[in-house]
Amino acid sequence: MLGRYDGALVETWRVNWADVSQRVKLRQDTIGEIVREEGVFRAELRSAQQGLNATHGRIYQGLCDAEVGDARCRVNLGDPAFRGFATVTAVDDAHRVVVAGLGGFGDSRFGFGAAVWTSGARNGLRDGVLTHQRVAAGDTLGFGIVVGEWVAVGDTLTVTAGCDRRFATCKDKFANAHNFRGFPHIPGSDYVLRHPRNGDALDGRAVVR
Length: 209
Fold this sequence. Notes:
Oligomer: single chain
Number of strands: 9
Radius of gyration: 23 Å
Strand order of the largest sheet: 4-5-8-7-6-9
């Protein structure tokens, strides 16, 4: 399926087989998770109520709510420091592949980032990268979806740096603290519940700097 039908619209109709112009639409859904079992595909159908689970507006939270590289974040992912070109050298499992070409970047540079495939069966598709680890054979990229069944040795991809949405990452990794779209000074639940201790900064100063 290669993810091409993710979010696709599915309509269910009751039709008079003797006169197909006589019909009534019963429901309208979207395709959610797709799995392959025992040689067949099984697709989850999500009703319009699924939209009630979507976040609308902004949430006051410590983490940034922008997407790295978007108009609110303003990080230039075209910068060579945040963009790499890789070639698959091995397929570890359904979610992880080993690649060459990222040796000039630090470990975990592309964790929480994205990959755009530039050849092979997934050519043109964009997948989220969850993890990036340096290994003896090169670099291992872990994906949030199954890619191993559709990837072969020699496939190429372009990867862009990721962000875990923390203020420290925005500041240290991207030097972009002035565009941070979260609220890092909000105390967390642990901070609220803990007992005061000698040496604690309880004078109103910023929680993070």
